[in-house]
Amino acid sequence: MRLERVVFALNRRRYEVAAGDVHPGTTLLEFIRTRTPFTGTKLGSLGCGEDF
Q: Looking at the 3D structure of the chain, how many domains does it have?
């Protein structure tokens, strides 16, 4: 099964990402910092830093 897109909500705003629009190694943190207005997002002490 191939993933075609990811749809999620962040601060009540909907984000839809096509599979080919993001490098497979991009972390969710990187995505939030570069593709949303939330550039100050930090990796907390409980964050695992895994790929999404």
A: 1
Q: For position 46, what pLDDT does the model report?
A: 56
pLDDT range class, residue 45, cuts 50, 70, 90: low
Residues 6+ apart with CB under 8 A from 28: 52
Residue with tokens 């839809």: 16
The answer to whether 26 and 32 have CB atoms below 8 angstroms apart is no
In a domain, 24, yes or no: yes
> The whole model's pTM is what?
0.66
